[in-house]
Write a structure and sequence with these properties.
With 193 residues, the chain is an all-alpha fold. The chain has one domain. Helix content is 74%, strand content 0%. It is built from six helices and no strands. Helix 2 packs parallel to helix 6 and helix 4 packs antiparallel against helix 5. It starts with 23 loop residues before the first helix and ends with a helix.
């Protein structure tokens, strides 16, 4: 299926709408960059980009979602090289780019799934989008291992643990979005005559 044949998202077709549509890109960028900073310091290389991809794709049209995920990836790289003192060598830099590519592919996979899955099953659609995002993310990372090393890190226990970590982050990010939506609607309700 070509991407141009997918239904184009409208303001009412996006799965997460915690704020007004004009503020959604800034809100999503702030949410994901703050979350990425926290995850980067706590988990270093296990930042849950699949969860970030799903949230961005659920909240924004594809191009802004890709931009927001790129911003989160840049935050991750700045923290890694600047604060966590990742080695500045070709292999580490190439791994950084592989992670960035994987995050973008995960965002694309999320966007496609969220656009074609039924609108009335948002929770299920978000869960399936996470599965698609996580599988595509891990596929890209695994595809880089013949060139960059690290194939030994693809054990079932590590893959499951990282998948559960992504699911936990997705749950938390959706909860933050729902709280923001509630607070925004309450504020608007009090402002209305």
């Amino acid at each position: 299926m070509a991407l141009d044949r997918l239904p184009r998202p409208t303001e009412t077709s996006l799965r997460l709408a915690p704020v007004e549509p004009g503020s959604a890109p800034l809100f999503c960028f702030a949410l994901l960059t703050i979350s990425c900073a926290l995850a980067s310091f706590v988990f270093a290389c296990a930042t849950p980009f699949a969860a970030f991809a799903v949230v961005a794709a659920a909240m924004l049209p594809l191009v802004p979602a890709l931009a927001v995920v790129t911003g989160a990836w840049l935050v991750n790289q700045v923290i890694g090289f600047g604060s966590l003192h990742y080695p500045v060598d070709a292999n580490t830099i190439l791994w950084g780019f592989a992670i960035g590519l994987a995050a973008l592919v995960a965002t694309l996979a999320s966007a496609v799934l969220l656009r074609v899955l039924p609108r009335n099953l948002t929770a299920l659609a978000l869960a399936l989008a996470l599965v698609g995002a996580y599988c595509s993310y891990e596929f890209i990372i695994f595809a880089a291992t013949p060139f960059l090393g690290g194939a030994g890190d693809f054990t079932i226990s590590i893959i499951v643990r990282l998948g559960l970590l992504s699911a936990t982050w997705l749950f938390g990010l959706v909860a933050v979005c729902e709280i923001a939506r509630f607070l925004y609607s309450e504020r608007r309700g009090h402002a209305a005559p």
